[in-house]
Amino acid sequence: MIRSVTAILIKDFVSELRGKEMLLSMLVFSLMVAVIFNFSFPPGSEFIQEAAPGIIWMTFIFAGLLGMNRSFVYEVDKGCLQGIMLAPIDRAVIYISKLIVNFVFILLVELIALPLFVVFFKLDILGSPGYLLLVVLVSTLGFAVIGTLFSAIAVNTRTREVMLPILHFPVAIPIIICAVQATAAVFQGQEWAVVWGWTKIIVAFDVILFIVAFLTFEYVIEE
Amino acid sequence: MITTKSKLVSIAITLLLACVSHAQVARLVHYDGVLKDSEGTPFTGNVDVTISLYNRPAATEAAWSEEHRAVEVEDGKFSVLLGSVNPLKLSFYEYFLEVEVPGAGFEPSPKRTMIVGSGYNFRMWFLFAAYTIVWLALFLYMAFIGRRQTKLRSELQALAAEKGSV
Amino acid sequence: MISYTEKESNRTLIVLSAVVLIAVLVDLFLIFQFAPEERSMGHVQRIFYFHVPSAWISFLAFFVVFVNSGLYLWKRDRKYDLLASTSAEIGVIFATLVLITGPIWGRPVWNTWWEWSPRLTLFLVLWFIYIAYLMLRSFVDEEEKAARFSAVFGIVGFVDVPIVYLSIRLWRDIHPSPVIAGGQNSGLHPDMKIAFFFSLFTFTVLFFLMLLHRLRVERTAIAVRELKRQMAY
After folding, report:
1. For B87, nearest residue in chain C (alpha carbons)
2. What's the complex ipTM?
3. Which of A31, A119, C126, C174 is a good FRET partner for B87, with 20 to 30 A between their CA atoms?
4. Span A75-91, pLDDT tens digits
């Protein structure tokens, strides 16, 4: 099982690194949003610091959806999925490897964009960068967990690009609420207990939704 | 593989149950008050305020109370969040609220106020509107379903007749 | 064969419709005559008797979606998919009613049309989830694929609900605003309880009546499609 996961992973990483479509588009999108949001507040406004957690997470969600939209398009359009499914492997392997790919790419974009947000919005994270990293890790995992499942569904619908956000947003609301609040707690320099109070809900979300997605994925891609 | 899946399912169910039981949290009530001194001029500054809820107007023992320290009063107006200091876990039906400002020489009048809503008469319209909307929506939906059924039925009959003639 | 079952189901529908009609009349009497006036909110509190049952029915409907989605993936019988999809549609209607009557109740009592109270927020999210469910169904061309995808989404969406509620409750605790502190059930007068539970019964029967009607439409539509396919040969 691990060997087949790594095989698909290598295939996905190699093809992505050749084209760099998904990574670049997500990255450029995040940076543009970071700049554009600055213009929606009066110069020197304090309000931007308060709104920063919300802005950061909305950017990451949209960037993540942008990337995840692509994750099954090639597979379906070029018939790769049929090829993978002909191989004698469990369907869950496809889910796990796609999940890892999405998770790693979104995380990469976030780790590049986050320092820029901190600089642009004059935020203070030096007190507890570890907490912030943890929040980013578990939230991104949650996004990828449901995003991978839903992008496999959305790619089969008539309105591919629109369907993914419509499916993704309402289900992702717990992560949106908790990630924004946990990030705000980190920026305000609150103690670990406050941050963890929000983070543990995201962790519960990750575990529960991963199990459900893992079990139902095989029904999505059967042909 | 099957045992892994059933294990995963049981983990999911346990966590879900934990979430449900965790969702019972104490309540918060917003309270706006007015503070004037004995001459009736609005007070401005910071005071400690004690707020208590009583079951009856003359009850001596408070059902619940909490103290807010250094509440900001501006032009006589202040607002506090009941339940933010001492968790408010009462079954809310009817209470008498008393505000005390210890040591500052304020005497609240009237001493206790009943917690009630405001504006009575125009409310009937809201009831009427809600009632109309609910039953109208349900009726329209049923009518819509009925019409589609009749249409489909006649289509089915026409098709069956056509098939029979062929 | 077809005509026989249709006659059978027609009889059930007629009986159920009669029950609903009587129940609605009795329910109206109980709501507007029998139940006492609530002291602090006045007559407007009577919205409660159809606001809260609507909420319960939409939960019931979404639970039916969840169970039948699972059954569909397991058994692959089209009847489960039909039940799930029709139940989702009716659930969305009741959730919409909750979202409409909530503000109408909130305006005179809380003095605001919309309140980010945990329950209203939860219903807004539920509404979005099941609207997405219905959109997903209509945006997939093949019937079998639509059934599979919506079954998966029906399961994921329902499992998500408790977590959504938990996070909204916590979020509300740090962003509070005027709210009537009310476990409505905790302080209910016994007569109010009678009216409420009868209302709940009425809405439940109504839900099943709507479900049966809607299923009948769907079955007729399938029959029409089958006939057309046969005649195309």
Report:
1. C173
2. 0.88
3. C126
4. 777 777 777 777 777 78
